[in-house]
Specification:
The complex is a heterodimer of chains A (about 120) and B (about 110).
Chain A (H helix, E strand, L loop, with lengths): L2 E5 L3 E3 L4 E8 L8 E7 L6 E7 L5 E2 L7 E6 L4 E6 L8 E8 L5 E4 L3 E6 L1
Chain B lengths: L8 E4 L5 E6 L11 E6 L6 E4 L13 E6 L2 E6 L8 E9 L3 E4 L3 E5 L1
Parallel strand pairs in B: 1-9
Antiparallel strand pairs in B: 2-6, 3-4, 3-7, 5-6, 7-8, 7-9
The chains are: A mainly beta (about 120), B mainly beta (about 110).
Chain lengths: ~120, ~110
């Protein structure tokens, strides 16, 4: 059974860097699929942040591209997200997910809440 | 890239059917058969319910079905049950951003 688990600080100061990691179990990320990040501001809808493939470069939502970095560590079977600099608008629940070839997201982490403080 | 357009709310009584629409453009919904739908209960992660417009993942009841016409995709929930009450999001491939979501629809079972 494939499982994803997000981890990282729940509180980040404005203008600093948000760093999250998604640990994957039950599946080797080197075997295929894309791996992505999605966020959900409080009481709002889902926003696609970006994705990465084990042997390819990352792809970012153009609206966030200048502030986002997604990387992958196949030796640890995990991938990561950095957003910098952050503002209050980056306060959200952050989900990691597995993305299939036809752009569906079939396995999700439970999500982690990140609050940006001033 | 604007979000796909969904009605903010929908409702139906137990046993009835309800359809939720998802409108995009020829650059996303209308340009590919890569539409998926997600169910999200409060405090939970989204769950994939439909992919490739009309395919159901293993374990999803056949009460859930999907379709598409031109730039609008639809999710139909038949035989409404109390546990279907949740937020529903559509998603599509989009040339500009890879993945784009709808704004979400809150489904209420009366």
């Amino acid at each position: 059974q494939v499982q994803l688990q997000e981890s990282g600080p729940g509180l980040v100061k404005s203008s600093e860097t948000l760093s999250l990691t998604c640990a994957v179990s039950g599946y080797s990320i080197s075997s295929g699929y894309y791996w992505g990040w999605i966020r959900q501001p409080p009481g709002k809808g889902l926003e696609w942040i970006g994705q990465i493939f084990h042997s390819g470069g990352p792809y970012y939502n153009p609206s966030l591209k200048s502030r986002v970095t997604i990387s992958i560590d196949t030796s640890k079977n995990e991938f990561s997200l950095k957003v910098s600099p952050v503002t209050a608008a980056d306060t959200a629940i952050y989900f990691c997910a597995r993305r299939g070839n036809t752009f569906y997201l079939d396995v999700w982490g439970k999500g982690t809440t990140v609050t940006v403080s001033s | 890239q604007s979000a796909l357009t969904q009605p903010p709310s929908a409702s139906g009584s137990p046993g009835q059917s309800v359809t939720i629409s998802c409108t995009g453009t020829s650059s996303d919904v209308g340009g590919h058969n890569y539409v998926s739908w997600y169910q999200q209960h409060p405090g939970k992660a989204p769950k994939l319910m439909i992919y490739d417009v009309s395919k159901r993942p293993s374990g999803v009841p056949d009460r859930f079905s999907g379709s598409k016409s031109a730039n609008t995709a639809s999710l139909t929930v038949s035989g409404l049950q109390a546990e279907d009450e949740a937020d529903y999001y559509c998603s599509s491939y989009a040339v500009s951003s890879s993945v784009i979501f709808g704004g979400g629809t809150k489904l209420t079972v009366l």
